[in-house]
Write a structure and sequence with these properties.
Number of domains: 3
Structural class: alpha+beta
Distance between the termini: 35 Å
Order of helices and strands: HHHHHHHHHHHHHHEHHEEHEE
Strand order of the largest sheet: 1-2-3-5-4
Number of strands: 5
Largest sheet: 5 strands, mixed
Shape: elongated
Strand content: 5-15%
Radius of gyration: 37 Å
Oligomer: single chain
Helix content: 55-70%
Length: 465
């Protein structure tokens, strides 16, 4: 669950004024009243369970079983806190963002460090504080005010009906007659029951008119306390960012390592073998020339020339895989257009020209190779006869996103295989804090999307090949 900022809450708040706003508050009264009543029941249950567990654990700390009981109370407190957060959805207020329960970036911990992690996480303790102390006190107050407002509103407006069924004596001791006697200028000559009906009705109207505002205030008071104790902290975002940064760095290192191994294999299997053959041909040419066999020497020279040209072509191809000249000289849009033009199948292009200025060089290089491989896969594996390449920006988001889609009309059925194909591309994109999504039902079409945040800090350089 993502964090809810103050600005988001302000944006989601109702903007209606006057009677429209009052009417909206009335629509929320049943949910808010139900929450305030259920929250009281939940708080009373929580304090009885948590206090028993926690203080039992504290009392048994001298023994081995004390610490596990305290940890159990923290987990139970988390459960009560989650229940309170979900009950708050009845109020119509924004959902409280989920805290970071696992704030550690590294997972290389021992058994005891792992199971005792709640003891080192402040959220568990604030949930315990909320469930064992704060919520019972606050809920008692809000529950009392809720029942008073509901009972006076409903009872005052209907007393004229049900009050008639209350047994009445000779009138002595009824509070209506004392009011009539105290204010003869207002209630002179009125019966005790009429005075009571009138005053109950006035109180009922006042309490009913103010009921939406009171329910709103009580619910918001509970919400603000819950958001402070049960919600997400600013440090949670930093912890999530650090963990995502570490994951991106790991993916980038793994992708670069795989790329370097592939480059080493390509050099060994291609240019290196050509150069070894060229060396042997030159040695043979030297021997034939020394023996005066000019015709054989000329034939060997032609063969050596062919091997030299092939080795040069392969080196050029490999060097373009490291740093394609078209990408460096003319930008990402032109480089992707070149990839589409060189493809064995027709590729329809929809490329936003603004990507050249918006996309950093390291991102553009990775996107270039990923798209080139996706189009190659569409030719080699999907049996496609046409494809579409769409590249666009989402500048309205923070950070702005680069969206790339490759859609082909092939046979479909593409999926992730560990260590191969799309899995390797996903690792390369993850190194840029991006995601790669695949939608490829059997029978096609296949749609592969690449989504990369452009303003994120890239911790590690992407793979080179």
């Amino acid at each position: 669950m993502t964090a809810m900022t103050t600005e988001q809450i302000r944006t989601e708040a109702p903007t209606r004024t006057g009677w429209a706003a009052y009417g909206r508050e009335w629509k929320l009264v049943p949910g808010r009243a139900l929450y305030l009543i259920l929250a009281f029941a939940l708080a009373m249950t929580a304090v009885s369970v948590l206090a028993g567990l926690f203080w039992t654990g504290v009392g048994l700390l001298i023994l081995i079983v004390g610490l596990p009981i305290i940890m159990l109370s923290l987990f139970v407190a988390r459960g009560f806190g989650l229940a309170d957060r979900y009950l708050l959805l009845l109020t119509g207020l924004p959902e409280i963002a989920e805290p970071e329960w696992d704030r550690e970036v590294t997972r290389s911990e021992g058994f005891w460090a792992t199971i005792s992690r709640p003891l080192r996480n402040g959220h568990y303790w604030t949930y315990l504080l909320h469930g064992m102390i704060v919520s019972p006190i606050v809920s008692t107050v809000t529950f009392a005010l809720t029942t008073v407002w509901l009972s006076v509103s409903l009872g005052g407006l209907t007393f004229w009906f049900w009050g008639a069924f209350i047994p009445r004596g000779d009138g002595t001791g009824e509070w209506g007659q004392y009011v009539s006697a105290a204010m003869p200028w207002l209630f002179g000559g009125w019966s005790s029951f009429t005075v009571e009906v009138t005053l109950y009705l006035i109180a009922g109207v006042i309490f009913a008119v103010t009921l939406p505002w009171v329910m709103s205030g009580l619910a918001r008071f509970q919400y603000l306390i819950a958001r402070g104790l049960l919600g997400r902290w600013a440090s949670d975002d930093l912890a999530a960012e650090a963990r995502a940064e570490a994951a991106a760095r790991t993916s980038a290192v793994q992708a670069e390592s795989a790329g370097l191994r592939r480059l080493e294999r390509d050099i060994h299997d291609g240019p290196q073998q050509r150069l070894v053959r060229l060396q042997l041909d030159l040695a043979a040419l030297e021997r034939r020339a020394a023996a005066g066999d000019t015709e054989a020497a000329a034939e060997l020279a032609r063969e050596a020339q062919g091997h030299a040209k092939a080795a040069l072509d392969e080196l050029r191809a490999l060097s373009s895989g490291v740093a394609p000249p078209l990408l460096q000289d003319r930008g990402l849009a032109a480089a992707l257009a070149g990839v589409a033009a060189a493809s064995a199948l027709p590729v329809s292009l929809d490329i936003d020209p603004a990507v050249d200025a918006a996309v950093p060089a390291e991102v553009a290089r990775t996107v270039y190779f990923v798209i080139a491989e996706l189009i190659t896969n569409a030719v080699k594996h999907a049996g496609a006869s046409a494809a579409t390449l769409k590249v666009s920006l989402r500048p309205g988001e923070t950070p702005p996103m680069l969206d790339v889609w490759v859609v082909d009309n092939g046979r479909g059925g593409a999926h992730m295989v560990p260590g191969h194909g799309l899995e390797g591309l996903r690792d390369r994109i993850a190194g840029l804090r991006g995601v790669l999504v695949v939608d490829s039902p059997l029978g096609g079409p296949t749609a592969v999307g690449v989504h990369i945040p452009l303003a994120s800090t890239i911790a590690a350089a992407p793979a080179t090949a």
